[in-house]
Amino acid sequence: MKHLLLATAACAIGATAAMADVKVGMITTLSGGGAGLGIDVRDGFMLAIEQSGRDDIEVVIEDDQRKPDIAVQLADRMIQSEEVDVLTGIIWSNLAMAVVPSATAQGKFYLSPNAGPSQLAGRGCHPNYFNVAWQNDNLHEAAGAYASEVGYSNSFILAPNYPAGQDALTGYKRLFEGDIAQETFTQLGQTDYAAEIAAIRASDADSVYFFLPGGMGISFLKQYADSGVDKPVIGPAFSFDQGILQAVGDAALGVTNTSQWSKDLDNAANQAFVESFVAEYDRLPSLYASQGFDTANLLISAMEKADVSDQDAFRAALEEADFDSVRGDFRFGSNHHPIQTIYAREVIEEDGVYTNRIIGTALEDHADVYAAECNM
Amino acid sequence: MSAILLIEQVLNGLQFGVMLFLMAAGLTLIFGVMGLINLAHGSLYMVGAFAAAAAAAATGSFALALVAALSAAALAGVLIEVAVIRRLYDAPHLDQVLATFALILVFSEGTRWVFGSFPLYLDIPDALSGPVTLPGGIQYPLYRLALIGVGLVVAAGLWWLTQRTRLGMQIRAGKDDREMIAALGVDISKLYTLVFALGAALAGLAGALVGAIQSVQVGMGEPVLILAFVTIVIGGIGSIKGAFIGALLVGLTDTLGGIFLPLILTVAMAPEAAAQTGAALASMLIYILMGAVLVWKPTGLFGGARPA
């Protein structure tokens, strides 16, 4: 498996180790339940590298199996024996917390294509750590703001009982101006939501907010649609990304979700990205693919301005974020996390494929709340 | 907490319980009759769900999807019994655990190889979709009622099979004394393959039925497997009746605990803290139940004396 991936990576960029000027270590989830996310990040990232036509980037790809201990071992090997310059790829916040602080402390750059735990945005921020996706709370804050804007005044909110789930509900409540009918924590990996749906039916809420990434969201939405409860549902993009919508089917139609990216965002970079992704991989890109694509383009933009061996110059080049992000306007805040617009989307069916369409703006130029705690 | 909500939650617990029974029945038969710990039982559940999703996508028929799930899981069961499991009956439990764990990895990556990493679509048939209104004004999804019905029918069928048929007699005899029924001329190796296929088919059926309301994805079997093990330990290993009672107990405890514990805790705590603590405690409840049952009855509710 590992050799196959390495071979694929090497073919994709047509480079040999001897010529490579920047060596990138990608640790991401390629097997097990969360593999769809890692595969999308990898494919988006490799597409951007291929399109750049550069032969001075070598990418080493390894599978963390969604396990923190394996991610740490891989990072150690990449830093010590592979001697990579830049690390990237981690999907899950608990894995990022295990890998990022030690990698940046050893003088490596880390570009996060997904996980954005609050610790790394606030007190634990580091000059060599950049998040290209979002701080974890962002999409939830946007959902809270959007729910208030469309006039919901009483929400039933639920999320799995683990750190990112707790952050999600905190984020939603931060910008939601209405009341909370009930706050429910489910088990991580729970697949049957009949009990929660019964409680939603019995409550006096006028809206439902849920953060249930991956398979959990598929189960919830199918069961919710079949239950006959008709309170409107809002969620972050994670439960409605391109990879899982086809499995949810009709049950997702019309559901509102918040995202910093959407397939129909009207800018040249995005149109080119969607078109080339479909041509290359024969499927529509997801949010995660867009983040992988942007991460690679950020790296390439910095390589054009500075040499990676000159850390200060390379860091300054990264801070400029001088690339055409597929999400439109993009810049880094003082803590190296995005300041970006977050949109509200709804799920539609288009030519027999379920996908998202932008219906409004949830938050303009939004930055995270932890930046003030970051001293670097 | 209204009576309607309470009844709805009890129905939810029952539905969860009977689906768990389909998994646990196969597991307990295989452990009871052959003395084999089969960790790959969750993979057979996954095989059933994927076969159903593929068949439903190809034919559009849910009935055909169920047939595909049953036959694919039974076939996979026969295949691994003949190729791998047969060599393990006399091996220590540790070897069995290692080999069947390896089978989980083979099935997971094999499924990913064939179907890809993204979850598949499988929906409930139109005839069973949407809620129905029960007496007393309770709105309840028709499909979940159907699941309860299927579970009860399978339970009755298994009882009949084990208690009233010649095959059932052999299964029960095989559980008590393997050497003796072999000596009496029963083809023990054929019997084992048959029992294994039966257990696999039940797991596949559960996978397909539950897959329609959950997500059909790689790794979906392992969380259920753990609950199924808890169920058979509570019910007593090898006992179909124990698996049935155990499954209902686990289903009801898990569902009702998840709802009522946070509510009870709000009496003493702030709502947010009560929600978090309640959820954490609720996830432990079935293990506490298992511990309590084992203290009271070390071989489970309906387990006889442990075979040596």
From TrEMBL, chain A:
Q: Among the record's GO biological process terms, what is one?
A: amino acid transport
Keyword list, A-Z: Amino-acid transport, Signal, Transport
Q: Mind telling me which InterPro entries this protein's record contains?
A: BCAA_transport (IPR051010), Leu-bd (IPR028081), Peripla_BP_I (IPR028082)
- All copies of domain Leucine-binding protein, residue ranges: 22-348
In the UniProt record, the signal sequence range is 1-20
For this chain, the family text in UniProt reads: Belongs to the leucine-binding protein family.
Q: What is this protein called?
A: Amino acid/amide ABC transporter substrate-binding protein, HAAT family
Q: What is the lineage of its organism?
A: Bacteria, Pseudomonadati, Pseudomonadota, Alphaproteobacteria, Rhodobacterales
TrEMBL record, chain B:
Give the GO molecular function terms.
Answer: transmembrane transporter activity
A Gene Ontology cellular-component term: plasma membrane
- Where in or outside the cell is it found? Cell membrane
- Residue intervals passing through the bilayer: 16-37, 44-60, 66-85, 97-122, 142-162, 191-213, 219-237, 244-268, 274-296
Q: Does the keyword NADP apply?
A: no
Which Pfam families does the entry link to? BPD_transp_2
Specify the domain of life of the species encoding this protein. Bacteria
Any coiled-coil ranges, and where? none
Output this protein's name. Answer: Amino acid/amide ABC transporter membrane protein 1, HAAT family
Which species? Answer: Palleronia salina
Higher taxonomy? Bacteria, Pseudomonadati, Pseudomonadota, Alphaproteobacteria, Rhodobacterales
